[in-house]
Structure formats: C-alpha cells, structure tokens
C-alpha cells in the first residue's frame, strides 16, 4: 500500500509537475506532497467528457524543466518532447479524486542501488514499476488499461529506470556528501537491563539510550538462541538531543533468568554487545541495617559519655571531704 499522504516525500515538487490537458479539469500539484487533485468543472451540455490529466515523463536530460502544454502535446522548456502516457486513472468519474505518486531511490551500504515508482488512486495501489522486467505492475483491472497503453509507448518504464538508477542516485550522492558530518555521526547506546517479578513471572527489560544513527537491533537470547517470537518491542523514538532510545522485554521463569542475555547491535559498536540482568544482592539491605545500628550505638555511647562528664563537674554538697569553720 502507498503511505499516508500526510507524510512528506523526498523529491522536489517541480520534478513531479503534471502534464496539463484541456477538457474541463484543473490539476494542481501540492507544494509539499505529490497529490494531484482532479476537480470537475462545469461544461456546456453536449460537450465531450473531460479527460483526466496524466503525469508527464520528460526525457532524463530535461527532468529539471517544467513541462508546458501545447495543443495537447507536452513539451519541455527546451523544446524536447516528453512522453505523456495515457491517464493513470479511470476516465469515468464525478466530483474530486486523488492521484498519488511516490518515487525515489536508495543507495545501500554495500553500494547497491534500487529505485521505486508507484501510483495510487483514491488511496489504494494502482501501478508500480518493476525495474527488472521494465514494466508496470497493475493492481486491478482498471490499472491494466493504463499499463497496456504505457507499454505500447515502449519507453516509459525504461526512462523511469534510467532516472531512478542514474540521475536520482547522482543527486543522492551529492546530498549525502553535503551532510557527511551529520550522517557519519556515531553515538554509542547506553544499555540497561532490569527485571521485575510478579505472579511467578519475571519480566526482563533491555533499554538502549542515547544512540545515533537510528537503526539498531536489540534482541533477547536464551542460551545463545534468539527468542524473536517471545520478545515484545517498543518503537525507536527520538530524544531531545537528536539521539534515539528503544527497548525490548521478555517474560521468563525466575529460575531461568541466568540463561537470558540482551544482544545489542549498532553502527557505533565494533561488535554486538551482550548484557545480562544482575539483580541487587540481598546482603545490601542487611549491611545497610547493620551500619545504621552501629551508628546508633556509637551515638548513644557518645551521648552517655557527655552526660557522665557533666555529672562529675557538679559542686560538692557538704560531704566528708568538705571543710567547715565556725564558733559556738
């Protein structure tokens, strides 16, 4: 399925400029999203039905130009002919309709490249480019009509593949070089493992904080074997400083806790990290209690010593050691 149209696409709007046609329809590209909205306008009775405008595919060397209409034939600003395939949506309609298009290219870490070119109509899949077969895959019977007409031209898929695997990749490499410092930034994740027992079930939690870039793999191992189905995952979400955090949990038997480890793989780590839960020792509360008791005893003895010394300094009351003088 095509993504929600509320999400911005990467390619500039002018590269997705539609090819206007006469016939009572107004087609307007969004400034931020590739959404072509066909609006039916009033026409005189008996006039021919409007034709839905089709996206325009200029030759690769003129992709930066805006196509312009000329007697129903699209031409670029340089006068180069551009291919205007048949309408990518059904001709019979009324009211407003939405055509979506999403295309782009990926440059993978291993140096391989791939591209995609997809159309949607009314929020559902319509046509998708098959780069290997140099054709478009139709999602339904209505799309088959457009697919056949595009294939009659014989160059639509070939032109799109050329653009995706050459021009698009060239731009991508250039923009990656502009943001090299940011893109190559590496922040190691801070990993914390904790556990909480309830109803004879121990829930182990593994959290990674402050890592960058976003891709990360966190998994639970039992005796070295990944426990994918038993693992519950949270979303990888951003922090205020541009780093990310993520977490995974797993429910285990308390007696098996020593069999489990959390494995974290990230671009900032030379090799995957393994982390285990180390619960606090039961001696800690005991030692703390003994320390408090010792302090209390020392305080009491010190207080008693101070009190005793004050009692020894009280003046005599006329006892046997006192001297008295007087006359009868």
Automatic annotation (TrEMBL):
Q: Which SMART domains match?
A: IGc1
One GO cellular-component annotation of the UniProt record comes to:
MHC class I protein complex
Q: Does the keyword Transmembrane helix apply?
A: yes
Q: Which residues form the Ig-like domain?
A: 189-276
* A Gene Ontology biological process term: immune response
Which PROSITE patterns does this chain map to? IG_LIKE, IG_MHC
Which residue ranges does UniProt annotate as crossing the membrane? 283-307
InterPro entries from the UniProt entry: Ig-like_dom, Ig-like_dom_sf, Ig-like_fold, Ig/MHC_CS, Ig_C1-set, MHC_class-I_related, MHC_I-like_Ag-recog, MHC_I-like_Ag-recog_sf
Q: Where in the cell is it found?
A: Membrane
The UniProt entry lists membrane topology as: Single-pass type I membrane protein
Listed A to Z, the keywords are:
Disulfide bond, Glycoprotein, Immunity, Membrane, MHC I, Signal, Transmembrane, Transmembrane helix
Q: Which family does it belong to?
A: Belongs to the MHC class I family.
What the entry lists under PANTHER family is as follows: MAJOR HISTOCOMPATIBILITY COMPLEX CLASS I-RELATED GENE PROTEIN, MHC CLASS I-RELATED
What is the protein name given in its UniProt record? Ig-like domain-containing protein
Which organism encodes this protein? Anas platyrhynchos platyrhynchos
